[in-house]
Amino acid sequence: MVNLELYKVFYTVARCGSLTKAAEELYISQPAVSQAIKQLESQLGTPLFKRMHKGMELTAQGGELVFGDVEKALKLLGGVEDRLEELRGCATGTLRIGASETIFQYLLADKIVEYNRLCPEVKIELISDVSPKIIELMKTDRCDVGFLNLPIAPDEGIVITDSIALLHDVFVAGGEFFPERAGTLSVWDLQKYPLLLMEQNTVARAALDRHAESLGAKLLPAVEIDSWGFMKRLVERGMGIGCIPREYSLNELESGSLVELRVEPAMPARSVAVALPRAAATNFSLRSFLNLFRQ
Known about the structure:
alpha/beta; 5-stranded mixed beta sheet; 14 strands; elongated; single chain
């Protein structure tokens, strides 16, 4: 009799390339994963993996021969379960959502709460990381949907679908730092002041650098920062001028703790978009979540 759980373990180990990572994904112990692989190898009468120093590798005469059929079978069964869920109108399973901490906080929190209310049977996993890492997780089937800061380099492993928000980067000051803030500034004027900018490996910083370079200027940071929240705190205390999406500082701008400076020309708008793994099917649980952004 076919034991589907053994094949699920086999498929997960093959995809992760590691007993430890497979155990984490399956929420079982590493010895249990190892025992399942040994049991399946005994049933099939052939070794499925080579135990390498760097992890687990499929054998040419065993694992590689069956991997494709196992993958197709599991996806077919997943489609059956998905259709049954859709007929019942009740999503189940696990939904793995990837995004940066800022996108979770400012753009996704309300939608996630709403989804949890509508689909309480779905277990939600939140994966907080930068866009390049989220892309890699989607390509290795460790993340179902990613919310990415654009623009990003083209990647054949993912598909960019809907845009869920536009971001307008603006320059802000706080405290008594900038008494001339009522006037209009140019990018060249900004070079005279201490600037608080995001780190170089971020989409936001790359967009700012491209904008400045297109105008023949170069903006050098006095301090590089890795979070918008920390940047706002430093700017509010008069440490310098920050560059931040207006959408992430609405409360501070409304209260007056931050003041938006008039800088011309304005920076082009950026967007946050939905990304899906190209090779994966969109199940009912995921479709139900994405529909919240299309209403």
